[in-house]
Amino acid sequence: MLLELKVANFAIIENVHLSFKSGLNIVSGETGSGKSVLLKSLSLLMGSKTSADIIRSGSEQATVEGSFDISEREDIKQKLTSFGIENDEDLLIVRRVIVADKSRVYLNGQLSSLNLLKDLISPLVEVTGSSAPLVELTGQHENKNLMSPAYHLDMLDRYAGLWEARHQFQAQLETLRKLEKELIVIDENGKNKEQRLDYLTFQKNEIASLDLGPGEDEILEQEIKRLKSGNKIIQFTNQVESMLDSDEDSALARIKTVLKKGHEITAVDPQLGEKLLGLEAIKSSLEDVLFEVRTYTD
Question: What is the SS3 assignment for 221-239?
Answer without folding.
Answer: HHHHHHHHCHHHHHHHHHH
